[in-house]
Amino acid sequence: MEELVKKKLAFTLTLLAGLSATAMAANAEIRVGFVTSLSGPGASIGTLYDKGMKAAYAYQDEVGGEKIKLIKLDDGSDPAAATQDARKLIQQEKVDVLIGTATAPSTTAMMSVADELHVPFIAVSPVKIKPPKNGHLWGVAVPQTPALMVKVIVDRMAREGIKNTGYIGFSDSWGDLVYEGAKAQEDNGDPKVTSNERFARTDTTVTAQALKVMATNPQAVLDGASATQAALPLLELRKRGYQGPFFGTPAMLNDDFIRVGGDAAEGVQVSAGPVVVTEQLPDDHFSKKIGTKFHEIYHKVNGGDAKDGFSGYSFDGWLIFLAAAEKALDKAKPGTPEFHQALMDAIYDIKDLKGVHAIYNFSQDSAYGVDERSLVVVKLVDGKWVYQP
Can you give the residue ranges of the Leucine-binding protein domain (predicted)? Predict the structure, then answer.
């Protein structure tokens, strides 16, 4: 009798354990850690990344039958805080993937943590990715490469007959990336760069730098800053009598730049992801259908129109994650090292994924998944960005 009771008890415990395991498996969730800059000097674009992520989550909040939990943190535009946020999300929140952030320095910091702790990272800011020492990098970049962003706009300068250009940009990694991109094009016959003036993201004046740029007598000026701060060089140069054209990168595509730049910003041409001018694109453009869907959801969730490119990077980052997660779920359960590896492998296997910015193709040899199809040129006309075929 005692033996029978023991057997029944053992059977009951086994059954309960099985049911518990089944319930846990059925209720498993994929945890996504998202970092952006909701405060600090990068907030004017960080809030746009946040709005894009809200639209992305509204677009699809589950994959392969698994619910997605989105955990969001603010890095305050500080690379040190971005590092701490990345570690917290991985080590405490046990996220399966990281997405972020709003500035190049902070994005680079997050990439280092993801690579160290072996958790996939999807960068939504332009970042220079160094070849991995261990033969496997735990991250990819959504945006067009800085070199490509600059190439497209410098090529436009050359087509307009411009032989030389002044340069003024941030005194950080983003400023370096834009300057290096412009210098790299000199050998291809594109405009010669006549100056290399820099300013900090927190500076409120660039008078000295503007005077040095003008002293080189450039035909045009390339702005290597972003968001609100990108308006400073334009305002100061116009104030000092410079009458030539301005050019820039997608980092200038936001309302604060237009508002602060005012008349000085009118006519500036920048390279841009096609999502910025979705309505102006031809119907057969790869971005037209998904871009239109993105704008509809963005308006519904955020109560306004998406006039920038930053929110689109978040959305495309989400599309990349969704495509990879669906495949990874066939190989492992969320929350495990095996799932992290499967997810990273699946990201590198993505081919011809149409997003609002680009058609993405990743590989083990390249963490950048875009080509020149991902960029158009737009011009600021009467305070609105106009497609320049």
Answer: 29-363
Tokens representing 119 are 């958790």
Token representation of residue 77? 């535009």
DSSP 92: T
- Same domain (yes/no): 47, 118: yes
**Which residues constitute the domain of residue 317?**
25-143+291-357
pLDDT in tens, 91-113: 999 999 999 999 989 999 999 99
Our CA dihedral for 351, 181, 43, 375, rounded to 10 degrees, sits at: -40
Residue environment code for 239-253, b if the CB has 16+ CB neighbours within 10 A, otherwise e: eeebeebbbbbbbbb
| Straight-line distance from the first to the last Cα atom of the chain, in angstroms, rounded to the nearest whole number | 87
Same structural domain, 380 and 235: yes
Q: Looking at the structure, tell me whether residues 184 and 241 fall in a common domain.
A: yes
| Residues 232 and 324 both lie in one domain | no
What distance in Å separates the CA atoms of residue 124 and residue 140, rounded to the nearest whole number? 9
Given the DSSP bridges, would you call strands 384-387 and 376-381 parallel, antiparallel or unpaired?
antiparallel
Q: What is the token pair recorded at 147?
A: 């070199």
Q: Which tokens sit at 267?
A: 């006519």
Structure tokens at 14: 């086994």
| Spatial CB neighbours of 329, under 8 Å, sequence gap ≥ 6 | 63, 64, 66, 339
Same-domain status, 383 and 236: yes
What's the CATH code of the domain at 253? 3.40.50.2300
Quote the number of domains for the chain.
Answer: 2
Instruction: Please check whether residues 91 and 231 belong to one and the same domain.
Output: no
How large is the average pLDDT for residues 40-49? 93
